[in-house]
Amino acid sequence: MPLALLALAVGAFGIGTTEFVMMGLLPGVADDLAVSIPTAGHLVSAYALGVVIGAPLLAAVTARMSRRTVLIALMGLFVAGNALSALAPDYDWLLAARFLSGLPHGAFFGVGAVVATTMVGPDRKARSVSLMFLGLTVANIAGVPVATLMGQHLGWRSTFLGVSAIGVAAIVSLALLIPRDRAAQAESTGLRGELAALRSLPVWLALGTTVAGFGALFAAYSYITPMLTDAAGYAGASVTLLLALFGVGATAGNLLGGRLADHSMRGTLFGGLLALATVLAAFPLLMSTQWTAALAVTLLGTAAFATGSPLQLMVMDKASAAPSLASSANQAAFNLANAGGAWLGGLTLAAGFGVTSPAVAGAALAVLGLAVAGTAYAVDRRVAPRAVRERVVASHVPQRAESSAHL
């Protein structure tokens, strides 16, 4: 695999760290800025809103630019957002800085996925995407715990300064390792062409699969701490280690999904969603003992992230005329899944269905994801024969014209 993928992984590591570390910093931030913890929680939402808005917007407006330049500029925006977070004098400034930090998130992964696939052969595209996402999953194992410890011992501002330093390292790596791509400017269809490529039912079905599939994950993961403490009987101090197990499972699933998707993209997607639905449906049973609960957390990460690479490639494939925008839109769909899944899981808890009920709701969302993916497959099978017929007819037209000319 090209060394340039390492540069993309470094950027993904920084982004993954800053996205998830806020949860561990909330008490310190709330105390320092004299706001309540629920109010400080809006800092998580501000970042997610930045991702949803920035992903398609930045990918679209940079459509005619060199992708290498775009990646470096996006990482520069990421560094600026985190540096401003560290220097924020009050809550409102921090809220704005967190929104700014989220803007380049989706576009970086979207454009990065396109760049990753152009550096390898057709039989290694999914693996190249999974190696970029490796930075995101490793962030959950190492980046987030270390950044949280920094915040607890040195103050939360030090965490954002540290993440900014990771961003600077990513910029240097991108500048040195990503090849120049002047031809990309000529190949681009521009903003109008990028937007037009999204007027496609298969693209929206692929995005819908992402929302349902990862909504299933976040319906359960958002409430994993009360499940582990109230149902499985773990002490609160053990939760951090168990969440690291989730990161290990996510890393394994990401690498496995990338390898399998190169052999069968659709089969890997269906298999991952089915495994996710099965694991989530078994949560009420698995959370009854401590060792099975630890297994459940690991399997949840594995099943969910096995679908990451095939989903990203499927969206790019269905919008081949606008891969950067479609790939970035998929990151926005991922964050919508985060918000929607957490909301649905919260509804089941509020209704009094029990502490493991969000996982059951997640299982239902995974089944919905399977249904949407199945619909997309049916649409593809209906469209494919028509496309073949059109190519056959088109290939005979010049011959007919040539025969007429000889007569």
List the helices and strands and how they pair.
Elements: H1 4-20, H2 22-33, H3 37-40, H4 42-61, H5 67-87, H6 91-118, H7 125-154, H8 156-177, H9 183-187, H10 190-196, H11 201-221, H12 224-231, H13 239-261, H14 265-281, H15 283-286, H16 290-305, H17 308-318, H18 323-350, H19 357-406
Strand content: under 5%
Structural class: mainly alpha
Unreliable stretches, pLDDT < 50, 5 or more residues?
A: 183-188, 387-395, 399-407
> Shape, please?
globular
Number of helices, counting only DSSP H or I runs of 4 residues or more: 19
How far apart lie the N and C ends? 55 Å
What percent of the residues sit in helical stretches (DSSP H or I)?
over 70%
Order of helices and strands: HHHHHHHHHHHHHHHHHHH
- Rounded to an integer in angstroms, the radius of gyration calculated over CA atoms is 22 Å
Average pLDDT taken over every residue: 84
Secondary structure: number of strands:
0
Q: Biggest β-sheet, characterized?
A: none
